[in-house]
Amino acid sequence: MSRSDRTNGLVTLGVILISAYIAAQLLSDILSLKIALVAGFSIDVGTFIYPLTFTLRDLVHKQLGRSVARTVIVIAGVVNVIMAGLFAFAAWLPPDPTWQWQHEFAAVLSPAWRIVVASIVAEIVSQFADTEMYHLWVTWITERYQWARVLISNSVSVPLDSLIFCWAAFGGQLPAATVWSIFWANVLLKGMVTLLSLPGIYL
Question: How far is 67 from 83, CA to CA, in rounded Å?
Fold first, then answer.
C-alpha cells in the first residue's frame, strides 16, 4: 500500500469516526425526549446510545490524537446548541392552517432550556474528562490493553456525566432521593452499554 493510500485511508476513517460521534451525540439528545420505564426505573431512551459516544471519542483519540478529540467535543456541543435553537425556532413559527400537528410538535421538540444546558454542560465536561483520563493512561501507564484504557476513562466520565446532568437538570425540582435514583439508573445502564462497546476500540 502506498503512502498516499494510507493517508487517504486515515482521512476516511477519521471522517467516519467524527461523523459517528457527532451523530450519536445528536441522536442521544433527541431520543432523550422519550422517557421509558425499564426494569422499574424511569430513564430517558437516549441513555441507550449516549454511552457509545465515549468509546467513539476514544477511537477518535486513538486514530487522530488528543487535540482532534478535544475539537470534536466542542463541535458536538455547538451543534447540539444549534439543534436545540432550531427546534425552538420551528416550534415558534406559526403553522400552516392545514397542518394540524403544531401542538404535538411543540410539546415534544420545544427545548426545556434548563435540561438542554445541563445536558450539554455534562457532555462537554465528561467528554473532556474522558479525553484526559485516556491520555494519561496511554502516556503514563501503558499503550497495551486497549480495553483497559476505555474502561478506565469511561469509569470516570460516565458517573461524572450522570452526576452533572441529574443535579443540574433536576436538583431543586425533584426530591433528592428521586434525583439520586435517576443518577444510579443512568450510571448502571451507561455502564452496561460501555462494557458492550469495549471491543469497539479494536476496530
Answer: 24
